[in-house]
Amino acid sequence: MSRDTLEDFKVDVAVLKKAYRLMITAKTMADTYEENKAICSKYVHSTSRGHEAIQLAAAFQLNAYDYAALYYRDDSVLLGIGMQPYELMLQLMAKADDPFSGGRTYYGHPSLKREGFPVIPHQSSATGMQAIPATGMAHGIAYLENQGLLNGDEKPVVLCSLGDGSVTEGEVAEAFQMAVLKGLPIVYLVQDNDWGISATGKEMRAMDAYEYAAGFKGMERLRVNGSDFAESFEGMRIAFEYAREVRKPILVHAKVPLLGHHTSGVRREWYRGDNLQEHAVNDPIPRLKQTLLSLDVTENEIEALEQEAQRIVAADYQKALDAPVPDPSTFDQHEFAPTPVTEEKGERAPAGAEKAIMVDAALHAVDDILRTYPEALFYGQDVGGELGGVFREAALLAKKYGDTRVFNTPIQEAYIVGSTAGMSAVGAKAIVEIQFADYIWPGMNQLVEELSKSCYLSMGKFPVQSVIRVPIGAYGGGGPYHSGSIESTLLTIRGIKVVYPSNAADMKGLMKAAFLDPNPVIMLEHKGLYWSKVAGTEDAKTIEPDENYILPLGKANVVQYASGDQIKMGNSMTIITYGMGVYWAKTASKQFPGSIEILDLRTLNPLDFDAVLASVRRHGKALVLTEEPLMNSFAESLAGRISKECFQQLDAPVYTLGAANLPAIPLNVELEKMMLPNPDKVAATIEDLLNY
C-alpha cells in the first residue's frame, strides 16, 4: 500500500490514542525487563519492540469468535486484544497464575480460551510450525460452515502471525498450498524485520514473503509499512474483510524494524552494530506521536497516555514479582485430558454376525463414526475419490459422505498430522491417514511440537483430538519404504497414545475409543493382518462387533492361557507381544501344548503394565516379542521394567526377540525372512527359555 495523505486511511482518533497507549505499554514492559534483567532474564523472552504498530493493527481486527496463532514476539497483539501487562508478566516469570500455561512455557507463547476473547490455541515456539495448525483451524472452520454446524451469523477468521524468516520453512509451503487449494478464511501476517537470529534476510532467502506468496495461485497479497500504525490498520482491516467475506486466504507483508534483542539470550549489542540505529529511524512510536499531534491531540493528552501506561506497567511488575510460583507437586498434571471411555461396551460377538477381516472392521468403524458424528471428517493421501485408500481401507466413504468430509490431500504428511491440532481447536474431529508408517517422518515435527505438548503446556485447555491411522509392518516383499515398524520412536514422544490392534474385533472397538478420546491417538494397523492372507493369521478375522462396541485403550488381553498342570510343573512361560507377534507366538506355541500364555498388549501407550506383571508372575519366565529391530526398542525397555519389578519371581532372564538390527527391510522376500522374526525363531527361543 502507499499513501499520500493521512486522510487516505481515516483511522478514528480514539483508535489512534488507544494504539499509542498500548505501544507505550509494550515499550515500557520491554524497558522494565531490560532494567531488571537479572530477574526478568532468568527465563528467555522476546518482545515486540519495533513491531508494535502492525501487531496492534492486527489485534484490533480480531473478534471474540475469531482464532489466532501467534509467534513468540507478539506481546503487542496480546495487549491489543485486552490482555493485561500483569498477565503477560506472570508468564515471563513462570508464575503459578500465568493464564496461558501455569508457568510451563515461555513468555509470548499464549494459549487462551476465555469468554470475550479470540481463541488462541497452544503452539510451539512458532518459527513456521504454527502455519499448519493455523491453516488447520481455517480448514476446520470451512468444514463446519459447509456442514451447517457453526452457530450464529459470525464468519470466523484465523490470524496466523509469522516472522519473514520462518516463511522459508517447508511446512509453511504446505500450509499455503492447502489454504489456496481449499479456499480457507485465513490472514497470514508476515512481520519482516530483516533478521533471523544473527542472519540477515539476504543470507536466508532469495525473496521475501510477499514475492514468495505470488507462487500460490489464489493467495491475495498486500504490502504495508508495518511501522506506520494508520497504514497498518487499514491494511489489516482490508485483509480481515477479505478473509471474512470472500472466505479465501490473504497474506500481509509488513516491513518493521527490530528494536529489541532477538531474545533476551541473544542480545542486540552482540551483533547489530550500526544496524540498530538504522532501524531506530522507523520506530513506530514517535511516528504515531507525530500523527496524533497533526490531528490536534495536545502534548498534555499524549503525556497523560504515556503516564497511564507507565503507571500500569510499574504496578503490574511489582504485583507479578509478588505472585506465587507453581506448586511443584502439580508438575505432572495434564499430560492427557480424561477420556470418557473407561469400560468395554456393546457386543463384541453378536449372535448371527459374520466374521470380518481387520481392514473391513476399520472401514466399518470409520463409517459408523462419520454417520454418527457430523463434526467428523477423514482425509489423507488417496483415501478419497474412487480408490478409497491403497488398501481399500476407506472404500466408498467419499461417495457416501461427499468430498468435503472424505478427501484426498497432497503429499503432505506434515499438514495431515499438524492440521488435526487446528481442527480440534475449532471443534472439528479429524481422522487422518499416513499411507505407510515409513512416510510418517515428515510429520514428526508437527506430532512432537504441536500435538503432543498442547494439553500439558496449555494446562489442559487445548488437548488435541486426533486419530492418525498408520498402516505398519512387513507383509512379504514390501521393501524398505513400505514395511517398517516405528512404534519405539513414537513411544519416546510423551503426550500421544499409541494403539496396535491384532484382530478385527479389537480394531473396531479401539478405533471407536480412539475417536472419542480427547487426546492424539495413533492407530498402528498391520498390513499383514488386514486380510488374514498371511499364513497363521487366520484368527485376525473375527466375528464383527456391533456398531456400539467400544474397547478402552490401555487394556491388554490374554489371547491364550497355559494349562494349570504345566504351570504347576514349572513348565510354562508368557509371551508378551502385539500385532503380528501374536500370530508368530500362536503358531510357535503349538509345539509346546499347554505351556504358553500369550498376552496381547493391544495398546502400547497407555500400557497395561499390571496385566504384564500378573502374566509374568504367573509363570516366572517371559519373552517380549516384537517385529521391530531389537536394539534400543520398546521391547527391550519393557523387558528391563519387567526385570526390575519381577526380579524375585523370575526363574530366568527376561528374553527378547525382534528383527535384526538393520536400517531397512530388504525387498527380496528371502532376505526379508532372514531379518524378521517368524514362528520357527520364536519356537527356538521358547525351547531355550523353558529349558533355562
TrEMBL record:
Record has Oxidoreductase as a keyword: yes
Coiled-coil intervals: 288-315
UniProt xrefs under InterPro entries: DH_E1, THDP-binding, Transketo_C/PFOR_II, Transketolase-like_Pyr-bd, Transketolase_C
Protein's organism: Pontibacter populi
Purpose of the protein: E1 component of the 2-oxoglutarate dehydrogenase (OGDH) complex which catalyzes the decarboxylation of 2-oxoglutarate, the first step in the conversion of 2-oxoglutarate to succinyl-CoA and CO(2).
Domain of life of the native organism: Bacteria
The entry's keywords: Coiled coil, Oxidoreductase, Thiamine pyrophosphate
Ranges for domain Transketolase-like pyrimidine-binding: 356-532
Protein name: 3-methyl-2-oxobutanoate dehydrogenase (2-methylpropanoyl-transferring)
Cofactor section: thiamine diphosphate
Family matches, as CDD domains: TPP_E1_PDC_ADC_BCADC, TPP_PYR_E1-PDHc-beta_like
Top class in the EC scheme: oxidoreductase
Enzyme Commission identifier(s): 1.2.4.4
